[in-house]
Amino acid sequence: MADDDMRADFMKMDAVLKGIRGTSRLFRPPYGEIDRRVFEFVRSKKYHVVGWSMDTNDWKYYEQSDYLGKVMEELGGRAKSKSIVLMHDRDEKSAEVLKEILELVIKTGYKATTVSKCLGINMKNK
């Protein structure tokens, strides 16, 4: 993607997100892929680039009746301290599954928190 197109796409995304939920300074690159040029531009706009350490692959199982079971199977026993788990927010089903996953995570002794807290980023006045 040309620099001008990348910048225009980023600024459009920034404006849309501000209109929906205010300012956020966290950026997850599409598919987790980012090159140095994009990384440096994103950082110049005062965003923190965030990846993930665990992928639920929830998108693969979305249409299956055992969606929760499949997502939990993907997670298995791989959760570690400060894991960032990737899930996709498609609709109410995603929120329902997330609630059940969070209940299980808490039962097993882990704590759910925000990405900014997990990474030690102070998001106030940013």
UniProtKB/TrEMBL annotation:
Gene Ontology molecular-function annotations: chitin deacetylase activity; metal ion binding
One CC-aspect GO term: membrane
One GO biological process term: carbohydrate metabolic process
Start and end residues of each NodB homology domain: 1-113
Superkingdom field: Eukaryota
Keywords: Hydrolase, Metal-binding
Protein name as annotated: Glycoside hydrolase/deacetylase, beta/alpha-barrel domain-containing protein
UniProt organism field: Rozella allomycis (strain CSF55)
